[in-house]
Structures are given as structure tokens and as C-alpha cells.
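Lab notebook, bench 4. Still working through the backlog of constructs that have no structural model yet. Next entry is a single chain of 255 residues. Request: give me the C-alpha cells for it.
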Amino acid sequence: MISMSALWILAMNSVAAAGGLFGPPQTVSREAGGLNTAIGYRYHEDTFTSDTDHVVRQNQIYSQVAYGAKNRWEIYGRIGISDLKIFDAFHSTSALTTTDKNHFEENWKFFGTLGAKGFYPINNIFGIGAFFQASYNFSNFTDDISGIHNATPFLADLKIKKLWDVNFGVGLQATAPYGIKLYTGPYVYYAEADAYLSSAIPGIQSGTEKVLWKNKSTAGGFLGVDIPLAKGFRLNMEGQYTDRFSVGSAITYTY
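Model written out:
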């Protein structure tokens, strides 16, 4: 069993982080229309809160396929894997209860993402765009704890199910010499999940809980650069900030 704050943190975390990078507002596909693919990585941190705050960390690896045209629009899908760590999720508030660990940890689980973006060029240098992105975790995150309450051993687990999130943002893009794209903007997001406890342990929270929760900060900003390399390859690097900072990069290829 886990404290209510730990439950809420666990439930919210992996969904809010699952999608990966937002990328530049303008598609990198050919103007006449075509595919681009990518392999990406993101290190994500955030803070989730109920009665207390918890820091959440994830490492995400994903592949993407996208189709865009006319330098104006793009649709894309991703499949990836993500781990999950929530600090102090198993901390007990009772002096009679001790646990074998404080942090929730689970390794690689699959997630999927669908997204779309549109772009309007103001002139040859500046443009503005918007995107919508939604993600869902196909697998449950589960971690076990053991400990002692009042000299009696116990074993319990927490499962996080049906993790999903949606993101919407607006980005301003500037095209620099050599085809380098600089972009920045705000975004908002919402996420939810169901958290289930296996048993009641005094000092941690009793009963099985189904939690519907949202993270501490529902809005943030992003900043990135997209750099042409050679023979259709590009390097995308991006930072995101809500309550904490996240960063990632991706290599794309335009067919």
C-alpha cells in the first residue's frame, strides 16, 4: 500500500511524460508531400503533488513515422519504451512501519503517440504553428515493496494502469541561414491514470485506490533547434519546462 500522495504521483507521472519531443512547427517532409522518420530520446523530470510533492523522472526512447506536405502540415505516430521513477513514493508516515525502499521504480514499458501540426509562414524567415499530441501507455507500471509493521512482515504492490496524456501548444519559428530552424512557444497538457493498491498497511494508505489526478503544473514552455546534417538527415534538440526541466534529441530522415 502507498500513501495517497504517492498514488497520485505515480498515476500521473508516466502519462504526462510519454509523448517525447514536440519538434519544429514546420514539417521537414518534402513540399510535394512525403514521409520522414525519426529516432528520439528524452530525459523527463516533473513534480507532482497532492498533500506533498514528489519528483518524477523518466527516460524515453522512441521511433517515429510522419507524413507532411506543402511545408504547412504533418501527422505522425510514435512507438517507444519508457522507465519510471518516483522519489519517496513508499515513504511511511508511521514509526511502526518500515519499508525496504522509498522510491518507486519500473523499467521499460511500451507507449504510443499520435500527433498533428500545422504551420503558417508569416514571411521567408518567421512563421507560426500549432500542434496537438496524445500518448497512451500500453503496459502497466508495477513495483513491489516489503517491510515490517509492528514486528509483522508484509508484502504489497502498486499498479498504474491506463496512463494517457494530451498536449497542445503554439510555436513561433525562425529559419536561420543553412536551413536551421529555431522555435519556441508555450504548451498546456492534461494527463490521468488509474492507480491500484494491493493491500492496506498502516502508515502508508489503506484500501485499493483508483486515482484520477493531474500534475502540479499544467502549462509550460519549450525551446528547440532543428539542424540539417547531410543526405536528408536532421538533428533536433529540444528543452521543455513545466515545474522542472526536461531535454531530448532526435535524428530525422526525410525521404
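Notes after review: DSSP finds one helix and twelve strands in the chain. The first helix runs from residue 4 to 17. Flag for follow-up if needed.
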